[in-house]
Amino acid sequence: MLRTLLYPALRCRRLVSRSCPPSLAKLLSMDAVISSSPDKIKVLPHYQYETHDHLTPSTAQPSPIDQFRRWFQEAVDNGVQEPEAMSLSTATPNGIPSARIVLFKQVDSRGFVFYTNYTSRKSRELLDNPHAALVFYWREMHRSVRIVGKVEKLSKEESSEYFQSRPVGSRLGAWASKQSSVIGEHDLEERLEKLQNKFGVKEGDKEGQVPTPDFWGGWRVIPSEIEFWSGKPSRLHDRVRYLRLESSPEEHPEWKIDRLSP
To answer: What GO biological process terms are annotated to this protein in UniProt (predicted)?
Structure first.
């Protein structure tokens, strides 16, 4: 009975419908999708994915970058919330992983770009182990993209160009935050106030001269593997993987395209 009611209820919530039947209204809370007890939380059956297109090696673009551009634009056009949000996974030289959500800012012929503090945990791990994995998940469209590759720093010129395009408050925030370090309760506010006085700007100003810090800039993930995932009913998902041929140059990569079992 729960399974019968759960899928329509979750579909109602997914479509943000305002006219869900009253009998389903109660199931729109988290109580409808989990069973909890003092010692555990158990996830109940998940609704079925319903993508209408079919992704195969024959329908995918020859280049994974072109395929990503197509899917990203469709995510934007279909109102996906924060389509640029992606999971970034790094690891220490000993293989201890860590992951966090960052914002994708650019894709070019070489790879995927994001910006951060170069003294942060993610940057320290990338300096010691210059490989990373990215994952995009566009829930509203039941699509995901997974990327694996090595990393490189952007040039100071590229990083500065982007930094100077950010709002004044974001530029001040980059200076104020010693990212990933332990701070006192009021340290951040005090640092921000000092920086506002130093640069002669305030957080809400529309314009102001805030220089690019030497400890801040961009990373580019140069992909060796990209997988596109499209959700289907009964967990029989479409999966297409691109593997870069090692003999091909990074500037003009060639790709082997395979369909993967779900």
So the answer is: pyridoxine biosynthetic process
